[in-house]
Amino acid sequence: MKAIKLGIIGSGNLGVHLCRAFSSSNDIDVTLFSRSGQNTGLINDLKNVVIEIDQGPLTNEYDVLILAVNDSSIQDVAAQNKENGALVLHASGSTDISAIGAVREKDYGVIYPLQTFHIENELTYADIPFLIEADSVRNLALITRLVELIGAKVHIMSSENRRIMHLSAVIVNNFSNHLYALSELFLTSKDLPFDLLLPLINETANGIGQRRPSEIQTGPAKRGDKQTIERHLYMLKENSDLKKIYHQMTLSIEALYRKR
Amino acid sequence: MKAIKLGIIGSGNLGVHLCRAFSSSNDIDVTLFSRSGQNTGLINDLKNVVIEIDQGPLTNEYDVLILAVNDSSIQDVAAQNKENGALVLHASGSTDISAIGAVREKDYGVIYPLQTFHIENELTYADIPFLIEADSVRNLALITRLVELIGAKVHIMSSENRRIMHLSAVIVNNFSNHLYALSELFLTSKDLPFDLLLPLINETANGIGQRRPSEIQTGPAKRGDKQTIERHLYMLKENSDLKKIYHQMTLSIEALYRKR
Predict the structure, then answer these.
(1) Which residues are within 8 A (CB) of B105 and not within 5 positions of it... i.e. 6 or more apart?
(2) Is the pLDDT confidence value at B23 over 90?
(3) What is the ipTM of this complex?
(4) Which residue in chain B is spatially nearest to A242 when comparing CA positions?
(5) What is the dihedral of CA B64, B69, B70, B71, to 10 degrees?
(6) Do B181 and A214 touch (CB under 8 A)?
(7) Residue A162, CB half-sphere, CA atoms under 13 Å: how many?
(8) What is the DSSP letter of A41?
(9) φ and ψ at A197, to 5 degrees?
(10) Cα(A89)–Cα(A104) distance, rounded to whole angstroms?
(11) Do residues B149 and B23 lie in contact, with contact meaning Cβ atoms separated by under 8 Å?
């Protein structure tokens, strides 16, 4: 079978990672389109990848185009490539499929990788669930083939359900990271080393692979240890933000497990 | 050198894990004292371990006793073994060394493993930081030897600083797990699979081993994406607890990065 010709528009975090992911298959030829050339130094040496410093309307030679641009630019870039014969996809968790559907008659869809991307971090792309959606069964099959070529799994999901998954991703990723950040800043202000918490943070994340998080909750709020909670709130008296979060999380844990 | 004779009092989560950890060294002979016999089936087949169904005042043959009991029982169990010649340690993050010091003239201290323990989970004990404290340099050296025999690292820390580390552990472990639990319950209520979030959760935790969490924050609150935030709050309208947490975390992220 001929290789799939894939164009990726945008060389931000997402574009660079999608480029790394799909170029790992010999059955996919990737062209990355970048307006600014940013980050292209990071993918210069990938095989199966051509870099074009250009983001205008693209030629008709691609099977699939992925718009790896800001949510607010998806519709504009899709409209620019209105006449393109490729299957045109966006890669956003919180953007409806109709953002592209509004400017194309057919051959459009979504390929949303449920993962967080930092430009330097190496990832195992085969572990990432791809939430996909398309305007036809034929196009769902093409997206599925693309994803399976890199060893990953697709999950067909409506825009509404994808948005719920995206909200959940914000909660477990952005908010957990913020808890880590607040702890880091708190410990640094006390001249204590944040690094000592890394094994604990990893075990907390790994632990839920084995059991449901709602079944393994521990800590003072879960066991109703008022004395420790009061002391912790006192210790946070000069740190009003973290104190409010401590209070809110404690109330929520107490409410959840009292109900049961 | 003769093996260290270690007595561990209590066969809860912590006692069982300490038993597994220290019995991995051939230079430590472990006796686990359990009042109820709970969980002892889990450690029956460990080498270098004797199990005693008893928790009364212990005989004088141990070099070190670790009180792996509830925080509120530490002082009572220490008082019961007031005359014992061993070095007597508690293993609590939030309990002052003086809880034992009040009932013993000398040879007391703390050995606090900064990790979360679930009874079934296997752990790499060599990765756990042990925060230690003692009434003398000689006793600090003995605790250090015990910990180094299982390949782990000690960090000498005052009761006050240990309490700050414990509070931080509650934030990164208990609160993150609660975010996972709330997402799990939210997704289940929408018939969507929580498991799809596991690779993201793991990457979020692993990512901070490479860069400081305050430097890798992402998401709608960080980038000031009001439209997505409003939509998320609307999606949580029937979930008042999670909505409050979403709101509080968003305010806190906005405040932190606006300041910078």
Answers:
(1) none
(2) yes
(3) 0.94
(4) B252
(5) -10
(6) yes
(7) 27
(8) G
(9) -85, -10
(10) 11
(11) no
Nearest CA in chain A to B155: A196
Q: What pLDDT does B260 receive?
A: 59
Q: To the nearest whole angstrom, how far is the Cα of B223 from the nearest Cα of chain A? A: 11
How distant is the Cα of A241 from the closest Cα of chain B, in angstroms? 6
Residues 6+ apart with CB under 8 A from A59: none
pTM for this prediction:
0.94
DSSP string over B194-234 = GGGGHHHHHHHHHHTTTS-GGGS--SHHHHT-HHHHHHHHH
- Residues of chain A whose pLDDT is less than 50? none
Among B203, B208, B241, select the one facing A252 at the smallest CB separation: B241
User: CA–CA separation, A165 vs A171, rounded Å?
Assistant: 10
Residue type, A130: F
Q: Where are the beta strands (DSSP E) in A144-252?
A: 153-156
Q: Would you state the pLDDT for residue A260? A: 59
Give B151-189 as a DSSP string.
T-EEEE--HHHHHHHHHHHIIIIIIHHHHHHHHHHHHHH
- Confidence label for B56 from pLDDT (cuts 50, 70 and 90): confident
CB proximity B126 to A under 8 Å: no
- Least Cα distance to B92 among B166, B153, B18 occurs for B166
Contact B57, B81 (CB under 8 A): yes
How are strands ordered across the β-sheet holding B129-134?
A: B49-53, B28-34, B4-9, B64-67, B87-90, B108-113, B129-134, B153-156
